[in-house]
Write a structure and sequence with these properties.
With about 240 residues, the chain is of the alpha/beta class. It folds into two domains: about 5-150 and about 210-240, Rossmann fold (3-Layer(aba) Sandwich); about 155-205, N-terminal domain of TfIIb. The protein has helices at about 5-10, 15-20, 25-35, 60-65, 75-85, 125-135, 210-220, and strands at about 45-50, 65-70, 90-95, 110-115, 140-150, 160-165, 170-180, 180-195, 195-205, 225-230, 235-240. The longest helix is centred in the middle third of the chain and has 14 residues, at about 125-135.
Length: about 240
């Protein structure tokens, strides 16, 4: 079974911008996602984007005046990010997000972990470790914003088949298979080839994370936490440093 990094490298990364309806639409959506949590422009504002991908949130954060360290395991997505970030204060880092503290030059004003990135961690203890590192890396009053899907309540039957996007030449469907701690996400890609279609299938595990556990873990480390519903079927956690 591929790891998350292998799944993206071999299967998903090359169609990821297409999945998001194109780079400009994705960055516009990312700007709307993050706008409520951006501080007024100031000198030397520092942000970290964990699981930055092609820059859906990195780009609007940088445009708001932050110096952004964007961390992801996909060289393909980071190459696209660097193209979009030309002229902005963005440093792209290919590494595991659990290593983000190695790239900190100071406490951060903003740390984001958007999309479904938290669920890419392999076990609950890694989530707890990351949240502890986040709490230690924020300035007083700094914000941590994370969105992720709540897989703790299993779907059943045909609802486990999720149409993601389709056009005349490509169709992407996900199928979810639940285990005790993980949900196996099968990404099924049909692509037109000549007069016919070919199919590519790959699967990788996502962690079934309790939103309440995430909130309680951040509170344990002294952060003030708001747990709320976010767009695109996500849960959003907003934590403020003490």
């Amino acid at each position: 079974m591929p790891t998350v990094a292998e799944h993206y490298a071999e299967h998903l990364a090359r169609i990821y911008v297409w999945m998001a309806d194109g780079i400009h639409a994705a960055i516009a959506q990312g700007s709307a996602d993050i706008a409520p949590f951006l501080a007024a422009p100031g000198e030397r504002m520092l942000a970290i984007d964990l699981g930055a991908g092609f820059g859906m949130h990195t780009i609007p954060i940088a445009r708001a005046g932050y110096a952004v360290t964007a961390i992801d395991t996909s060289s393909i997505l980071l190459t696209e990010l660097q193209t979009q970030a030309a002229g902005l204060r963005v440093r792209a880092v290919e590494d595991d997000l659990l290593n983000f503290q190695q790239y900190l030059t100071n406490e951060a004003d903003l740390i984001v972990c958007m999309g479904d990135t938290l669920t890419h961690l392999s076990r609950q203890s890694e989530v707890d470790d990351l949240l502890q590192m986040v709490s230690r890396s924020l300035k007083p009053g700094g914000k941590f914003v994370a969105t992720f899907r709540d897989y703790t309540h299993p779907l059943s039957g045909h609802t486990r088949f999720i149409p993601v996007r389709s056009d005349a030449s490509r169709i992407l469907t996900c199928f979810l298979e639940y285990g005790p701690e993980h949900v196996m996400v099968h990404d099924i890609v049909h692509e037109r080839s000549g007069d016919g279609w070919r199919i590519r299938v790959s699967a990788y595990p996502k962690l079934r994370i309790s939103p309440t556990h995430v909130a309680q873990s951040l509170q344990k480390h002294g952060l003030t936490v708001v747990l709320e519903t976010a767009p695109r079927g996500m849960v959003r956690v907003v934590a403020t440093g003490a």
